[in-house]
Amino acid sequence: MMAILYTRLIHWKKQIISLLFWLLLPILATLAIVYGTSLIQQDSKIPVGIVTGDDSEIANALYESIRATQLIRVIDVTEAEARRLVESHELDSAFVIGEGYGQDVENGRRNRLITSYLSNLSFAYAPVSQMIISLVQQDTGHSKAAHTVINLSNHTTEQWTWDEIVAKTIEIQQEEDLLRTTFTFANTVGMENENTVSLWNTWGLWALFSILSTLLLFDWGVKEKRAEILPRFAFIRYTYQHYLLLNVCLYTLLFFIFDLIAVVVFHTFLSESISLSLIGAILAFRMLINMGAFIFTCLFQNVYLYYSTAFLLALITAVISGAIIPIDGVTNRFPWVALFNPVQPFLEMEFISPWHIVCFVIIAIWYVKGGKSNA
Amino acid sequence: MLKVTSLSKAYGKKKVLDHISFSVGPGEIIGLVGENGAGKSTLLNILATLQKPTSGSIHLQEKSYQKEKPSIRKSIGYVPQDIAIWEEFTVEENMIFFEKLAWKKRGIEALRQLCLDMALDKWKEPVKMLSGGMKRKLNLAISLIHDPTLLLLDEPTVGIDLKSRKEIGVYLRKLASSEEKMILYTSHDMDEIIHLCDRIICIGDDPFYKEILIDSGKEILTF
Ligand SMILES: Nc1ncnc2c1ncn2[C@@H]1O[C@H](COP(=O)(O)OP(=O)(O)O)[C@@H](O)[C@H]1O
Ligand SMILES: [Mg+2]
Question: What global pTM score does this model have?
Fold first, then answer.
C-alpha cells in the first residue's frame, strides 16, 4: 500500500493545483451558495410599511407578530409617509393599525380594524394582507371566545362547571375554523419560503458538487489506461486490477479527509451539527460515489467524452435532486426517479442503499474476471 | 535458457507465425528481422506472456509458460515498441514510479546508475523535454529495474540518432556478456543487426532479408 501511495503521490504532485481545486470545490461552492442565497433572501424580503396608531397591548402584540413574519421586512412609518412610499413603490404596501384597535377588538368589532395602502405594483399584497388579516382574526376570535365565556358566567342562573366552559370554548374555536384556515394559508406562504431554503440544504448541495468533483478527479481511471503504458503493468508485483483498486482506496481516503474538512467548515460557518451518524453517512456516500465513479471510468477510453458525460451525469443528479427544477413535481409524477438518486439515501442518513450493493457486486465481478484473464 | 518449440499463432484464419522453434542461451543476442507485418511484435508479445500462442510450447529456465506465467514474468524485461513512460514525469520520477511497483527494490542510486550506464544523464528532466533517443533509453531502463534474465526489445532503436543507437547497442552487448542476459530484439537496421547479434531469425515469406544477411557469416534461421 505504501508503494502505491508513493506512486500516486508522484501523480498528485503533477496536478496539485487542479487536485486541490476540485477537492475544495464542494466546500467552497456550498458555502458560496448558502451565503449567497441567504443574502439575496434578506434583500428579497418584501418591504411593508406599518403605521401604529394604537398603543394597546393587543395592538403591540399584532405589530410584533407581523414583524416576526419571515416573508416581510417591516418599516415603521407615519400614515403620510406610508402613502408616499407606496405610491413611489418603495413599499410594496402599507397597513395602518388604527387608533382604538385594541378597544375595538375587545368590544368585538370586526370591521375595518385595519386600513391598507397599495399600488398597482403591490405584487405581494394578497399574501401579506391575508397574513395580517389572519392575525387580526386570531385576536378577534380570542376576544369573541372570551366574551362568550364571560357572558355565560354573568347571565345564567345555573352554575357552569369548568368542563362545560372548556367544551363551549372549543365549540367556539371550531366555529372560528374559517379563520384558522386563513391563518394556515398565510403560514404556508411562510413555509414555502422555508422550503426553498431547505432545498438549498447544505449537505444536499455539498453532495451534488461532490459527485461532480469526484467524477472529474477520477479521470485518472481513463487517462492512465493509455494503450502504450499498459504493457508495463504486466511486469509489476500487483495485478493490474489490484493496482487500480488500491488506487481507488487511496482516492477514497483523500476525498474523505476533505469530507471531514467540510464537516468542520460547515459546522463553523453554517452552524451545521456534527454527529457520528453524519460522519458515517458521509463515509458511506463517499464509498458509493467513488465506486460509482470508478465503474464509470471503466466504460470510457476517451477522456473528453468522459468529462462531458461526467458533467451531464452531475447535472441529471442535480435535476432529480430538485436543485434546479423543484423536485416535488417530478417525484410526484415519477416516484421511481427518487430511487435512482444516489444523493437521496445520503440525505436520509442511510448507510447502505441498493446502490452500494450494485456497485460492490459490479466491482467484485470485474476484479475476479480480470484476475483470471491476467493469470 | 529460453526454448521455443513449434510455436504457431493465427489471428482467426490468418496465420502469422508457423511452427517456429529455436532456443536462446545465456549471454546470447538474437536478432529478429522481417518485413512489416511479418509477425515480429507478435512473437515478442507471446514470449513476453502478453499474448497466447495458438499452439506450441515455450519454456524459460525449464518453467512452462502455460503453467507458471506469474513467476516467469519476474524474469522478463519487455521493452514495448511504443514508448511506455509517463510523459509528464521526470526521468527520476518514472524510474521511481516503476521501482515502487517492481518485484525488486533497487534504491535511488542504483536507478540512477542504471540510466547513466546507457548515457542517460538527464535525471531531473521532464520526459516530454527529452530527445527521442533519451526516451528510448528510458523506455529500456524501466524494463531493466527488476533485473530480468530474458530481455525482449521491440524496435528499441527505431527513429533515433546514430549516437544514441550506438550507445544502446554497446549497452546491450555489455548486458549480454557481463550479466549473461538473453536478449531478443527486432530492428530494421541491418548493420546494427549484423554487428550486434550472435544469431538472426528471419520471419515472413520475403527472401529479401535473408539475401542481405547471407554474407554476414552469422547463423540464420528462417521461418
Ligand atoms: N490483434 C490482432 N488481431 C488481428 N491481427 C493482428 C493483430 N495483431 C497483429 N495482427 C496482424 O498480424 C500480423 C503481424 O503483426 P506484427 O506482429 O505487429 O508484425 P511486425 O511487428 O512484424 O510488423 C500483421 O499482419 C497484423 O495485421
Ligand atoms: Mg512490430
Answer: 0.75
